[in-house]
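not sure who needs this but someone in the group chat was asking about Phytase-like domain-containing protein from Streptomyces mutabilis so here u go. i didnt clean anything up, its just raw.
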Amino acid sequence: MSPKSKRTRAALAALVVAAGTLGTAGAAQVEQSHRGQQQHQQRPSLFERTATYPVFQNRPADEDPEAGTVAEISSVSEDGRTLVYTDAVARRIGFLDIADPDRPRGSGTLSLDQLGDAEDEPTSVTVVGQYVLVVVDTSAGHARPTGRLDVVSLRDRKRVASFDLGGQPDSITLSKDKRYAAIAIENERDEEATPPGRDEGDLPQTPAGFVQILDLGRGATPAQWRTRTVPLTMADGRALPALAKASISEPTDPEPEYASINSRNQLAVTLQENNGVVLIDLPTGRITKAFSAGTASVRGIDTVEDGTIDQSGAIEDVPREPDAVGWIDDRYLATANEGDWRGGTRGWSVFDSRTGRPAWDAGNSFERLAVRHGLHNEGRAGKKGPEPEGIAIAEYDGVPYAFVGSERDNFVAVYDVSRPTRPVFRQLLPATNGPEGLLPISSRGLLAVSSEEDDAEAGVRASVSLFRLGRGAGHTPSFPSVVSADDAHRAPIGWGALGALSAVPGQRHQLCTVTDAAYSPTRVLTVDTARRPAVITRELTVTDADGRPVGYDAEGIHARPQGGFWLAVEGEKGADNKLVRLDARGVTRQVVPLPADIAAGLGKQGFEGVTAITDRHGHEIVWAALQREVTGDPAGVVRLGRYDVTAGTWSWFGYRLESTTTPGDWIGLSEITVVGDRLAVIERDKLNGPAAKVKRIHTVDLPTSAAPEGTLRILPKRLAHDVLTDLRATNGWTQEKLEGLTVGGDGHVYAVTDNDGLDDATGETVFLDLGTSRQVLGHRR
């Protein structure tokens, strides 16, 4: 290598180190720059989602489909075709046939009441050979923790062996050579108990947790397997010297949480509440090292729950409190620093097992990935932010990857850890709510993500999502479809709840959108559609006439050729609905209320879209759509409002909605835009996931004059495009709120879903380029 090349590589390495300290988003940017200089290197393959399977579809036939059912921890058969997951809510394990990862099929469940008691709860699972190893919490209470390990035949699902674990188990892990399984016996604390001289829920609380080793041997049958206990305290309850010297928070109550085994059969166990890690040699059962996970200060994050994505906050000297752990190689291990009660640093770390010291830390970059991808859960800002809980390490095509799951922001971040002390962010994978289990199936190029949150009332159900590593350079996954700009020198623009779209006059590849009541103050965002994914490049804060930031529930936006914007603002009450005109600086210049008689007939659903034209007389005419019927109007008929800005008058036309027979559902309008001599509207139902049915674009002829007084004139509609097909083509959870629609300056039809700021939603935003207006709407420019 030439001296010049060496200097270049050294400089790049230094930049990557700095970027790793500040965050992996910066590291990814440096890596992209490096790839640009090394053009002979192929772009890395990326994962693409192949399917999302709602596990309620795998319930017993006689069970209420609304009953809670989840997928938490999962494992897979050795051929990679049968996935097994735990369902603690329904107290069973489930089986999925994933032979075809594009079409997973439910293969039924095994209730734990067939193995023990109806109150038994599975906490983890792994598969070895033809056997499923299920760890079961049988505890009657915190003071008397009990548990067992059931060995179930994968073929006939009958129990062939069972082992008393002597305490309440949390996780199980299997060694690579399949000679050992290790179970973390947590004996978790009672959050309502008060130890002497301590606060409620504090440590220590007896009995102490420990580790159980299951010796599988070579070729032994389950009847020949044996367990060994590795105590983490002295026999009399005092602290082990190794833990005491390591500055473990409460070494008399270690509470082991999660476990991982490297190729040398070294077991790493996290002590989450105690902010520590213990290393155990499995063949001998000897503790070889214990160390504290330490503390971290993280700056440039959102720390206040106030409806504003304000990334100027900081946390100082906070314990990492790691949950999941995974060996990257035989030296370095990675932890997901979820936190429990004293800490949580909103990221993940790499530790050198030889020294017990951090070799790399994500800093603020994990949370900023959520912000950039529109997945930041502002409601958790004052707590532990994204709560990285799960972590898994696996090698695909010779490249080691780390997968880190965000429990609260519903994503899995993927990193190349070829250099363990310098992880490089590769991509973000969307999940349904509460991704818990991260299961690499590298033999088939797959990753399975199982989610523990199930909300039947909101229609957002727990699921197993499957992803496949793409083959060949240039593969572009369907997610993300829109992000905010990646600038290593400043925080990404925070965004979410995109419920409206408008073309920007005179700009071929620019759209604008607006945030709704999920965030405050209201901001107008500029979207660059020339890039894939589309990029949010600018934000404009909306103010009142006196220049003070204001929060509108903006559900529609129109960028005016004359400059500035019209907003359609929805309200909690009918009288709160209004049109708002902004100037180009975002200052409120005009407020147009609804006529009193219309406002009196509205409930919570009011304005949902706005657009405008200039008529042949040079007058600006604003069109706005109401989402639901006005009291007193014909059933199933909503209003399209025509506001003559010059005259200051309203007139109204009718639009007939589709009907629904699904209990709790309704159908309404959520957008309106002018397309030549027609108005295009979005008509949608309130359903999501597999229940979703109506996500459509219809058109009506654009009236050339005001509506006659009296009976509503209903405009005949024509179906232009069924967007449900496009939403389902992403292979994710079908989003409910298709709410933005426009025709860009490039002649393409764009649509976007509102993620509700992750409230009763998965948080995923789907931004769609549906094709040209001629293809989609039958309109020639």
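also Residues 1-41 form one domain. if thats useful
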